[in-house]
Amino acid sequence: MVLNIYILSVVLLTFANGFAYFYFAVKIKRKYPDESQYLNSVVISILWFVAGISYPFFFPIDDQFRQFYHILGAQIICIYSYAVVLFLFVVQYIFRIWRHPEVKEERTIDNFLKKFNERNEKKLLDLNEKSHSISTDINRKLFHLIPPGVIIILWEFAIHFWADVFNQDELWGITEEEYGMWIIMTIGFTALMVFAILDYIRLSFMFEKRNAYHLMPKNLSGIFLKTLNRDEVYELAATAALILALLPIFFFPISVFAAAALISSIGDGAASLIGIKFGKRHFPKNSKKTIIGYIAGFVVSFLTAFFVYSIFESSIPFIKIGILSFSGALVFLIVDLLDLKINDNILNPIFCGLLMGLLYYVI
User: Which long-range contacts does 164-170 make (Cβ < 8 Å, 24+ apart)?
Assistant: First the structure.
């Protein structure tokens, strides 16, 4: 009974964020209809609900050891994460806002937009009016590499150190795969909660009487300044969306997950950066995407997936690695060509992972 309450707490909290994201999506659409990416925000809301429904199935609960980990994970996600963020905001208010009231006047969305425009206008001088600079794009892609990178590192730690070196699997009575799943889910859901809170604070400028934008630390505001593009200034940030998109494909083998996750980061980064730097011919003509960008994205996606499968699945046939890598790169190219209104960081990992996952078991 106690265990069920903890699991239910995580599920309900995840659902609550799904409703909150939908509320913000509607609010943004009404207040900033030209800047709103309503469909994209609705999809993110749906992914919150998918994450909540999936959470109980990521980790087994058939004995006391596994139940202990479930309870500990739920406490970290539902209690400790919010306690830490609340503590940081309280400290921020006491030592910065309360002691220096002028900071509240400086930390406004208008000043952020002024800095944002100044920064991008300087960087865009040689980019033929493209939406954001190369430096911004590099920062974005590096930032998007963090979630899949952390997940892969945690998995390798669980498999090769937690069990093989420290023999913790024998002490705790769970396998290294189960521990890897638990630690990744715990940190992943905790990060989701933290990023959601930061998004709510950042977008609180929409509410005149409940504006808490000034609580956003200067360093975090600087990160947003360097990583957001113009479309995201009035939108929910893409970081939580990327993590949410990775969760459904984590049910597949780690090789499929890693390939899909890195395709969505490295392949997309190559397509964007090379397209901005060297792109001459646009396709379609009214699009910002270029033919050289499509080619670069496909090639880099294929090579990335091929490298991942060669590392994680060295025992499978060479032809299977090639087919899996080609299928992932092909899906990436199709998503890029379709240029839908839904963020590629959502579509790429999901569809690349689904196709590669199915082929992994069929071939």
Answer: none
Question: Is the previous residue joined to 317 through a cis bond, with omega within 30 degrees of 0?
Answer: no
Full-model pTM? 0.87
Give mean pLDDT, residues 229-252. 81
pLDDT value at 226 more than 90: no
Rounded Cα–Cα distance for residues 281 and 278 (Å): 9
Show the DSSP H helices in the chain as ranges.
2-31, 38-54, 64-75, 81-92, 102-106, 109-123, 134-157, 168-172, 176-202, 218-227, 238-246, 254-262, 268-278, 291-312, 318-338, 344-362
Distance from C-alpha of 194 to C-alpha of 197, rounded to nearest angstrom: 5
Please name the residues in contact with 258: beta carbons below 8 A apart, sequence gap of 6 or more: 148, 152, 308, 312
Tokens 């730097």 correspond to 277
Residue 131 · residue 229 · CB < 8 Å = yes
φ, ψ at 249 (rounded to 5°): -90, 0
User: What are the residues whose beta carbons fall under 8 Å from the beta carbon of 191, sequence distance 6 or more?
Assistant: 147, 243
**Which has more confidence, 21 or 101?**
21
**Which residue in 238, 240, 213, 251 sits closest to 108, CA to CA?**
213
Q: Give CA–CA dist 22/262, Å, rounded.
A: 28
Please, which pLDDT band fits residue 126 given cuts at 50, 70 and 90?
A: very low
pLDDT(133) > 70: no
Sign of the four-CA dihedral 28, 30, 31, 34: positive
Phi and psi dihedrals of 236, rounded to 5? Answer: -65, 135
CA atoms within 13 A on the CB side of 186: 20
H-only helix segments in 218-317 = 218-227, 238-246, 254-262, 268-278, 291-312
Task: Give the Cα separation of 118 and 193 in Å (integer).
Answer: 31
Q: At residue 119, does pLDDT exceed 80?
A: no
Amino acid 137 reads D
